[in-house]
Design brief:
Oligomer: homodimer
Order of helices and strands of chain A: HHHHHHHHH
Largest interface: A-B, 42 and 43 residues
Structural class of chain A: mainly alpha
Helix content of chain A: 55-70%
Mean pLDDT of chain A: 83
Radius of gyration of chain A: 22 Å
Number of strands of chain A: 0
Largest sheet of chain A: none
Shape of chain A: elongated
Strand content of chain A: under 5%
Number of helices of chain A: 9
Chain lengths: 217, 217
DNA sequence: GCTGCGATTGACCGAATGGTTAGCGGCGTT
DNA sequence: AACGCCGCTAACCATTCGGTCAATCGCAGC
């Protein structure tokens, strides 16, 4: 229905097909992320993308192929390099920056994080590639933490004497716990600042508490 | 097909209908927990329960009704009272027991925990009642932790000076983090003993490490 | 103007879905 | 022996699913 009329102001000459493919991906992202794989039908995607169902199958051979395309698209913002952000900081500041970064990212990408988590929990077969990539992210983050903690311990900044691996594992668990707490209870229950302060207190024996309130039942 | 011939030796006189209803619930539990709501068809349930599909609709009006029945059945083992288990222990032992209990429970009920988590993350409408009950469990557990920590602080056992709410929240987050770590990486990555030791170290300034190994890359 | 080709569509398909219905066997009651 | 009810089933129903196909549309090159 008049799809050829739509020519939103994009000066760059993209093939018309790229446009429709993108529209389909956008619609599929939205639907898959909010309803999951099995609960989303190709007809719904077609309707939301204002495109015929057959066109989707022209762009993507099967529903699964569309799904993994969506997965990869949603995963893109997850790959950023932290290195440039923490150029000349001491270990302690780097660790805290890392923690804050994790939590802010989760807050800003809550919907896709929720989607990935649910997807990996439920349908392991469909999300094998997803599993690999997430695991890669996870181990990378973990390795950075271990290195930072070990370095901090050597410099004597960190009084805690646990093995860096164990400390990093525990810290990561706490972060993941905050993640799911955030997913369920929303922003009201978790604030990055408080968590960062908590980590500082735990790892470095801090007692400076900038925000001493935060009671809850 | 000859279903009336099956008369497994059960001496107790339960109505035949209760038997079939139970068989259906068992099959549905298995299938729902391993595949989710939308991915499980009533015909599959019927086949696994070795019962006609119509009989399922005779016991349960709709698929959703069967589902919530399964939910409640799966939730039963989650309601236990901790009070009797920790009768005459000091706060520290109680806290550690509580932590150990949490982790052991997750390990022993991993499949249903995974199912609940995925279900709540994905389909909030269908799991409203589930949400309520889990939240109740959560806040109950949290309240116990808060009380124990506060009490330990008053007695001077716990040197950490954070607000009990904050400490309990952080501890709970760590536990939830261990939960999802366990769900993804399996038993090899998380051991309750190590976690309990870690908590002791964190909360009470312990340095006794009974199992000093456990390196990882 | 014709041709060729990438992009797009409506109509269609078999399979599976959640749910219904008419009826059947067995058993306790009268 | 007739009745009625409970437990149960095979067959059926409308709808929706993922996927296919022949037929177009628009446009570049000749």
């Amino acid at each position: 229905m008049g799809a050829s009329q739509i020519k939103v102001g994009s000066n760059e000459p993209r093939t018309q097909s790229q446009d429709s493919r993108d529209e389909i991906l956008k619609a599929a992202m939205h639907l898959f992320a909010n309803r999951g794989f099995h609960e989303t039908s190709m007809s719904e995607v077609a309707r939301e993308a204002r495109v015929s169902k057959a066109l989707i199958f022209w762009h993507f051979k099967t529903k699964e192929e569309l799904f993994v395309a969506v997965l990869n698209r949603l995963l893109e913002p997850y790959f950023i390099d932290f290195a440039e952000e923490a150029a000349a900081m001491d270990e302690r500041a780097q660790i805290q920056k890392l923690v804050e970064f994790y939590l802010l990212f989760v807050r800003d990408n809550a919907s896709s994080v929720r989607f990935f988590l649910a997807q990996m929990l439920q349908d392991q077969r469909l999300s094998e590639s997803l599993n690999d990539q997430v695991l890669k992210l996870y181990t990378g983050y973990r390795a950075m933490l271990i290195e930072l903690i070990a370095s901090a311990q050597q410099k004597g900044i960190c009084p805690r004497r646990s093995a860096p691996e164990a400390a990093a594992g525990f810290l990561l668990s706490a972060l993941n716990g905050l993640l799911i707490e955030y997913l369920f209870l929303g922003a009201k229950a978790v604030d990055p600042e408080g968590a960062v302060a908590m980590v500082g207190e735990w790892l470095f024996g801090d007692t400076s508490q900038s925000s001493p309130s935060q009671g809850g039942a």
